Inverse folding.
């Protein structure tokens, strides 16, 4: 089938790229850090209003983020710290990009808008809380991956919105970044609430299981009923301990 051929060809291209990157950057954490630096460049471009170019650069940045795990598996460098490092730098990347968008709408330009500065800030808060609620919930329950707007969806939406910021203003299919900010602001917090509700249900279920009466235990043996005695003979035991 055509879809299988396309998928197979895409996998071959990715595998070739991963092998090439593994030769240049054998440490996958280097790729993760490079991805962060590129996202900082994206934020600068957003701040200056170059949304279309920022969207293209963001695609490259997220290729690094997508491939660092593959490089880690190929080179046998999958570590606990690597996963932690990747997660922390992902949060930095999310925040920095949205700060760049906030700066653009806050600048004294014809596009200045307090409303969209606020929406970008709400979206920023939501992106942080989506990740936080999952991390915190999974300390209490086994898994919390519910909700629509996880990081990949947020990144794709920002890229799509950025790539539409070109051409004439009156084109109905272009200049959709403002609409994207509305979607991010609403659905990110919807995802947070969904995760909170899911965690509530799961935690309540686990609490109910934990409150079940314990299984009956076997009767104590004579050895278990014996009174504990000190290691020292009674004559050598302190006076306060000796039986009266």
């Amino acid at each position: 089938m055509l879809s299988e051929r396309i998928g197979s060809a895409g996998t071959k291209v990715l595998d070739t790229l991963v092998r090439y990157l593994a030769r240049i950057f054998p440490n996958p954490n280097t790729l993760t850090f490079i991805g962060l630096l590129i996202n900082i460049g994206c934020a600068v471009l957003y701040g200056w209003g170059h949304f279309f170019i920022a969207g293209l650069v963001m695609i490259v940045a997220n290729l690094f983020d997508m491939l660092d795990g593959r490089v880690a598996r190929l080179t046998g460098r999958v570590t606990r710290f690597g996963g932690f490092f990747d997660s922390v730098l992902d949060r930095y990347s999310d925040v920095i990009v949205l700060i760049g968008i906030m700066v653009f709408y806050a600048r004294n330009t014809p596009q200045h808008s307090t409303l969209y500065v606020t929406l970008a800030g709400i979206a920023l808060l939501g992106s942080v809380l989506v990740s936080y609620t999952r991390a915190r919930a999974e300390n209490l329950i086994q898994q919390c991956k519910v909700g629509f707007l996880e990081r990949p969806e947020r990144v794709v939406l920002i890229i799509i919105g950025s790539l539409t910021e070109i051409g004439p203003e009156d084109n109905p299919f272009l200049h959709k970044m403002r609409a994207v900010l509305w979607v991010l602001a609403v659905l990110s917090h919807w995802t947070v609430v969904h995760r909170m509700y899911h965690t509530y249900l799961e935690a309540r279920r686990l609490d109910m299981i934990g409150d079940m009466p314990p299984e009956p235990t076997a009767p104590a043996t004579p050895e278990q009923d014996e009174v504990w005695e000190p290691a020292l003979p009674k004559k050598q035991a302190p006076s306060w301990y000796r039986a009266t």
Observations:
- The chain has eight helices and no strands.
- The CA atoms of residues 36 and 89 lie 6 Å apart.
- The longest helix spans residues 177-210.
